[in-house]
Amino acid sequence: MEADSIWNSFLPAPTEEDTKTYAGTNGYDGMVESTNQLPSEETLAHSQIEANLPSSCSPSLSLKVTHNKKAYDVIISADKTVRDLKEMLTILSGIPVDKQKIMWSRGPCPDYSTLDALGAKTGSKMMMVGSSNQEVTQIQTKPNEATLKAMDQVKTGDKLGEQNLHRKIIEKGIPSDCMPGILNDREPLPPHPLSGMVNKQGQQVRLTFKLEADQIWISTKERTTKVAIGNIRKVVNEPIVGHEEYHVVGLQTGTTEASIYWFYWVPCQYVDAIREVFASFN
């Protein structure tokens, strides 16, 4: 019943006429309980919540929220807060509210801002970053895939930093305007572009994630290249030896290494969030 109660709180309140129409039920909560079922575990991979209930003065919004490889199509009143949205996503995903971060094209979404105040519209796309308690425990006790790969490369001597292509860029040192890297930290993508990095030509480069257009913009002083997020086939990354608070990150669009966009001095606290963006579209 507690989950039902939380669920019902996201739905528009009935009007007086609607109350008469549904007379004889156990009140509004009883009506919701009898006509709406919580989504089964089987449907969580791509869930849609629809409330076939009378609308209130506040319009309902249909939002798409992605998390890793799952997509949630959520219908919620525009006057609800981001925290209300998080509580709904907790029911769907099992990820606690305090472990979630909600982002969209305009940056992070504050908990107590209403969706209407944010400017969200029907069709708006948002991204949830977060891990369940079980996943957090596994992360703390077990090296992640990137760490294991880096360890394996150390054994085989095939580290990216030892290859001529990358070594000549890394040996030039940290760019003066590089964003600070924070070791052993994990943060969502910032609301502004990631800047202060360099590409394989040694040019300054910045990354802008345009989630509303499903694009990433790769910008130098000379040009901006717009790449569809769904076209990124693979993401590779590796800590820079001696400066582990920064990574080399590669975004591969084709079938060969020649199609990889390389970025150097990417702050390590954003690497997981970058990988999650592309994982959610593939």
Q: What distinguishing features does this structure have?
A:
282 residues, alpha+beta, 6-stranded mixed β-sheet
Q: Nearest-angstrom radius of gyration?
A: 22 Å
Strand percentage: 25-35%
Q: Runs with pLDDT <50, length 5+?
A: 18-36, 42-55, 150-157
Could you describe the largest sheet, including whether it forms a barrel?
6 strands, mixed
How many helical elements?
9
- Percentage of residues assigned to helices: 25-40%
Mean pLDDT: 77
Please sum up the structure shown.
The chain has 282 residues and is α+β, with helices and mostly antiparallel strands. The protein has helices at residues 2-8, 16-21, 27-35, 82-93, 115-118, 133-141, 145-156, 164-170, 271-279; strands spanning 46-49, 60-67, 70-77, 100-104, 107-108, 125-130, 194-198, 204-210, 215-219, 224-228, 234-240, 243-252, 260-267.
Question: What would you say this structure looks like, in words?
Answer:
The longest helix is centred in the first third of the chain and has 12 residues. The protein has a six-stranded mixed beta sheet, with helices on both faces. It is elongated, with a radius of gyration of 22 Å. It is α+β, with helices and mostly antiparallel strands.
How is the topology of this model organized?
Blueprint: H1 2-8, H2 16-21, H3 27-35, E1 46-49, E2 60-67, E3 70-77, H4 82-93, E4 100-104, E5 107-108, H5 115-118, E6 125-130, H6 133-141, H7 145-156, H8 164-170, E7 194-198, E8 204-210, E9 215-219, E10 224-228, E11 234-240, E12 243-252, E13 260-267, H9 271-279
Parallel strand pairs: 1-3, 2-6
Antiparallel strand pairs: 2-3, 4-5, 4-6, 7-8, 8-9, 9-10, 11-12, 12-13
